[in-house]
Amino acid sequence: TRIREGERIEDAPLERANDVKRIKPSEESVKARLANPKLEVQRALTEDEAKQEASRCLYCANCGVCKECIRTCEADAIWHEEETTTIKEKVGAIVIATGFKNFDPSIIPQYHYKDPEYPDIITGIEFERYTNSAGPTEGKLIVPSTGKKPKLIALINCVGSRDLNYNEYCSRYCCTASIKHAYLLKNKYGSDVEVLNFYKDIRTFGKGYEELYNKTRKMGVQFIKGVPSDIRKDVNGKIFFDSFNIEIDKNIRYYPDLIILQTAMEPHDDAKKVAETFGLSCSAEGFYIEKHIKLAPVETASAGKFIAGACRGPIDVTDSVAQGAAAALYAAELLSSDVIEKESITAKHDEEICIGCGTCIATCPYGAYTLIEKEDGTVKSSLKEILCEGCGACAVACPAGAISIKHYTDDQIKAMIETAFAEEKDLQSPTP
Ligand code: SF4
Ligand code: SF4
Ligand code: SF4
């Protein structure tokens, strides 16, 4: 029985259970879906419908908000009125695996993506939904503008990747994704469909991917090395583009029924904000930077913070899973260890010289400094060495010269430079 506001548990009549009618999600009409296949079959609930559905007592032995537990719990441990709160916890390790966002190809005018005049241009992710039995077309591949099965399908790779106007880097996953899409099409529709794959280079590193590429070629998919021109429409409204085919040394015009864009992997819009929150370093693109690209790929410059997956850079599922497991193991090792190993290269703070200006507090990305008032009334900064990662930023910023870095004092660096030049001089003027 649901308890209504202001009502005592004892007064709630039992027969009120299940007295709210279930809400069935409405469906898009077939006509609407044929006109716009991007629509899902089932619509989401409206806000009012969702509220009504949520107010229904399920009475299913899970929590039906009958509040009987309050009456029976002798320890008085149940509190139904608890509200959502923000909790601050001190933790020993953090794994940051915030993923990626898809590049939006509508910012490249030549592709006309999301242009209502060009509905037959979709992304690889949308193709995945189209061919999924739970997707908007219940797994049937159709041309959005006609509702008919496509005959000629063009896959265009590197959309938003390896392009100095958008992202210089290779997104790593999309060649294989594109080959997989071509394979699925040929496997399902055979000679009923012709599949063209336009590529800059085919990059199929990864177990079994080169074999899939070869298999897909044998199935009849045409791989064309070239970048398609602007997508346009002819007088009959048919979409087309040109591409130079280097194998036959000719510019060819193609009239596909459906175009699938393989889009780049990008960092989330708020990736830099998240990096600031967790004290991580970001690349110019917004991917998080590891401690060492080869030897410490999931560790960061800050002890106890690990990164995994696409927030670190473009990656495929296999490598994401491996990185996630590695990061979790590093975190577990840290938490289960009684001793923490630390680099001996840390800042050295001279309190005598410090003038208490606070510059080091603002400079240190790891929060290693605080300002303290001394017994004589002077204000000085205080260094918590365990938090220091030895980046050297505070030593450069301190206006009083009160900070040095152990093993890298000015005198030591000068001595290294002098020695290096002395050796060079010795080499240039060998003793007779
Ligand atoms: S993986 Fe292939 S499609 Fe993706 S950006 Fe690299 S070369 Fe282009
Ligand atoms: S920046 Fe230098 S002088 Fe200023 S508080 Fe820090 S250690 Fe002291
Ligand atoms: S060297 Fe200075 S700025 Fe860098 S982590 Fe240590 S205390 Fe912070």
From TrEMBL:
<protein>
    <recommendedName>
        <fullName>4Fe-4S ferredoxin-type domain-containing protein</fullName>
    </recommendedName>
</protein>
<keyword id="KW-0479">Metal-binding</keyword>
<keyword id="KW-0411">Iron-sulfur</keyword>
<keyword id="KW-0285">Flavoprotein</keyword>
<dbReference type="InterPro" id="IPR017900">
    <property type="entry name" value="4Fe4S_Fe_S_CS"/>
</dbReference>
<keyword id="KW-0408">Iron</keyword>
<comment type="similarity">
    <text>Belongs to the HdrA family.</text>
</comment>
<dbReference type="GO" id="GO:0051536">
    <property type="term" value="F:iron-sulfur cluster binding"/>
</dbReference>
<feature type="domain" description="4Fe-4S ferredoxin-type">
    <location>
        <begin position="379"/>
        <end position="408"/>
    </location>
</feature>
<dbReference type="InterPro" id="IPR039650">
    <property type="entry name" value="HdrA-like"/>
</dbReference>
<feature type="domain" description="4Fe-4S ferredoxin-type">
    <location>
        <begin position="345"/>
        <end position="374"/>
    </location>
</feature>
<keyword id="KW-0274">FAD</keyword>
<dbReference type="Pfam" id="PF12838">
    <property type="entry name" value="Fer4_7"/>
</dbReference>
<keyword id="KW-0560">Oxidoreductase</keyword>
<dbReference type="GO" id="GO:0046872">
    <property type="term" value="F:metal ion binding"/>
</dbReference>
<dbReference type="InterPro" id="IPR017896">
    <property type="entry name" value="4Fe4S_Fe-S-bd"/>
</dbReference>
<dbReference type="GO" id="GO:0016491">
    <property type="term" value="F:oxidoreductase activity"/>
</dbReference>
